Amino acid sequence: MLFRARYASALLLTLLLPCFAACGDDTSDGTSSGATSGGTGGAGGAGGATSGAGGTPDAGPAYALTVQVFGPDGGDTQSYVIVTDDIDSDEALSLDDAIEVQGRALGVGLDGGGAVFVASDAAATVTRYDLQEDGSLEEGDTVSFQGKGLAKLGEYGTQFHFVSATKAYFFDGPTAQVVVWNPQEMTVTGDIPLEDLVIQDATLTYSSSSPLVQGGDVITFGGWRIGPEVPSVAAVVVVDSATDEATVVTDERCGYVRDGVEGPDGMIYVATEAYGAAVHRLNPDNAAAPCMLRFDPETRQFDPEFHVELSTLFEGDTAGSLFGGPDGKAFLRVLDESLFAIADDTHPRVLASAAAWRWASVTLGDTPTATVLDAAPGGGSVLSVALGDRTFLLEFEGQESTTLREIGEDGPGEAGVSAPGLTFSVAKIR
């Protein structure tokens, strides 16, 4: 069936926008729009806490959801910061009292730290908003990362990691460095070069899940794209938060290995993300077979004897996106091709975000096993947020809304709160 070009373009845009976050793509051209602050249009005291039905609690938890609302054809994006005290309700949040931010914004913060820090692709700045007693947010200082060579801040909220109230990291792909900054003083205090992550002509992106923390080590994962190809390189980045020294360890047995979880043996298991798996499914010459590798955090080396092709866990089916749940649980997504018709011109980003990937629980160890679950299928690329001791999946309904769904021992739980637009970041601020 043939579509007119304008309808086909609109359909492609709807499918691609959720995957831009989960696959590491960006709709902007990498230039600054001239904004001088990461947060604009938000007056002090705006953004009062609400569960959707009203109310401003004096105590209890408070969460900041930062949502992105796209204009016609995906342009003229505006973002909004909403504060709510209830993420378990299945109600829809309103933008009526939200703080408006220019561009595609992210809102992050130290868990329970009383503030949300807002950045966007409109400038290389972060603006602090402090939670008030009545549940509103008050705008504070802004810090610029431009002096470290950054033109904007975007992609994932998980690229931010808060070591403490006075120290935080931002893992930047385009400049291959970690920017060190002080969230309390709102100053940049240093940088950690990651030259070993530079691959000529390649786009570097980081994990869309929160970094792992072992002792004082902050651990994240990188992946690369070169046009339609995925280089066969996996990378683990370990930053010692006491010394700000980084170790980058690479492996060439498979690529786009942006996901990792800690196994019951203390080892870190990493695997190809769904986008890399989709590239291989559509053209095996463009990417190595999706695989699982094992990294020893003590020796800081990959296990040369451990290499599992993900398809062997599912009788040959395409799989990717390894991510964690409660109590050490681990999950993968496996493609059910009966739910999505693959054509000769199917784009890997579209395939990775198609609602055709089933949930599977994974037992990690010397010989991993996997069991497909009964949960409803969804997109293969996973965007999750850790809020306290709970982990939530951010589920997109096209570009119209986002629903928070808690990940339990058996996979996705009941749908929680939803917000209009696309939510790429959530922070527990109290």
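Next protein, fold it too.
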Amino acid sequence: MRTLLNKHALITGGGSGIGLAIARRLYAEGCSVTLLGRTEATLRQAQSLIVSSDHEENDGVKRVSYHPLDVSSPSSWQDLLKRCGTVHVLVNCAGITQRSALMKTPVDEVDELVGTNLTGTVLGCKYVGRAMLLKSRSRALLPRTTTEEEGVTAEGVKEKGVIVNVASLLAQKGVVGTSVYAAAKAGVVGLTTSLANEYGRSGIRVNAVLPGYIETDMTSGLKNPSILQQIPLGRFGTTDEVADAALFLIKNPYANNCVLNLDGGLSAV
């Protein structure tokens, strides 16, 4: 398992819930993290929570930064990458939920659901993936052969970065009132498997974690006996448990195209 000491991670949706839990875990591993989201006040509060949880580090503020970002905006991504320096890890965790039948879901809400849950992930993979490759290539000053250009050695392709996309169990399991959200998250899974092949050959690993019911603001009000009875483990998961899964996908150097269900066994029902 590779160290994250002195690495830099971008986390969309890093101001709360699963994104914040992943950010805290990466910070604890020695990684510098940049929290990304739409609301600056939320990001600032998340930064304070992460830094205040570490009583030994004096440089905590330097290792935790934030940047307001509209994930569905190409120009917002381009502006971010002009400012943030080298990126080793991208976690696409920004998401909004849906609780309405398709026929009752307004078209502008459909656009927002797809824009945040799918387009934002596509754009993150596109722009950050490109930056990972360019930063890696800019370090080399001497001409290289075709094989060296791709970073192939006796040990395989040299790693240039890693991307973890947070999808959802709903990408694979139909639940009434989540059709657009589910379609977007299924798109994230398809994106992940395609890029694991496309990017993997250039040294960028791409994986996905598919959480089931996790205790966050998005699932508030859903914790009732009928749902709990469906889950073989009989409970909702925690954000820290999702962070554990994301950390494995980030650190394991042979993890590419891993689509990891984390749902207490609900996908088996």
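About the second fold: The chain has one domain: 8-138+155-212+241-268.
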